[in-house]
Structures are given as structure tokens and as C-alpha cells.
Amino acid sequence: xxxxxxxxxxxxxxxxxxxxxxxxxxxxxxxxxxxxxxxxxxxxxxxxxxxxxxxxxxxxxxxxxxxxxxxxxxxxxxxxxxxxxxxxxxxxxxxxxxxxxxxxxxxxxxxxxxxxxxxxxxxxxxxxxxxxxxxxxxxxxxxxxxxxxxxxxxxxxxxxxxxxxxx
Length: 167
Known about the structure:
CATH architecture of the domain at 2-105: Beta Barrel
Largest sheet: 6 strands, antiparallel, barrel
Strand content: 25-35%
Number of strands: 8
Order of helices and strands: EEHEEEHEHEEHH
CATH topology of the domain at 2-105: Elongation Factor Tu (Ef-tu), domain 3
CATH class of the domain at 2-105: Mainly Beta
Number of helices: 5
């Protein structure tokens, strides 16, 4: 499925977790039923006159009395070279082609790099962690540090009571 709309490329924002692209559409294009059908799907965005395409999650559609807002989350492994010409159109009116992708939402997010612990959840709800990963028991806590007399100061850096009164 594909839908083409006249839109204003409103903004592109990026933080440490995701990149968001937002378009405004007005008029008859707001009423296209394909927009609702593609929401919460993985799509490819193409702007007329720009060679590059971006793979995104069509995150949501928000309507008010003046316009419809389309929010897209850009796939995490999109290169800067791939998106540079695309983002040059930000702030201008564009012809936007939204094309349904063959990729599922699971595939879209599974391909991203995630930090953390790898694990599998069994049917009974217990969690299995590979043997080569650190466990909570492996992490030293402050109480253990005190009982092991670990002191960050070197012996020569310690002050005696006499040192305080020598001045």
C-alpha cells in the first residue's frame, strides 16, 4: 500500500534514544483512509525530488481542527549520508510518499543495538542468563567494601591527630 500527500515537513528531532520526524497535512489529504491503515506500521518515506528513502515506524496520527500531524520514528541504523538530503527539506512544503514496508515492527526494533543483559524468560516466568554474564552476586556492594577494609586513601595520605595540632 502507498499513499501520497502534500505535507509540510515540520521538524526533525533526535535524542540519545530515537529520531522523530513530523509532518503536517491539511485539506483533502487529511481524509485519506490509507493514513489510518498505515499507522503503527513500518513504512518507507520518500520526498519528491530527494533520492534517499527513510525506513520509519509510522508512530501516530494526531488531528485537530486545523491540521493532521504525522509522527514517524526513524530506524536507528539510518546513516547520516542517507538522511542528509532528506532533512534539507525540513521546514518546507513537500510531496510525501508513504510506502508500506515488508518489515514488521518486531524486525524494525530487533535490528537495533540494545545495551543491557541478554536473557530468556521461561514459561514458568523464571529468567535464564548466559553463564558469561555478570550476576548481581558478582557486583561488590558498599558493605562488603567496608568489611574488607578497602580504603581509597594511601597510608601516606592519612592524617594523625598530631598532624592536626602541629599548626
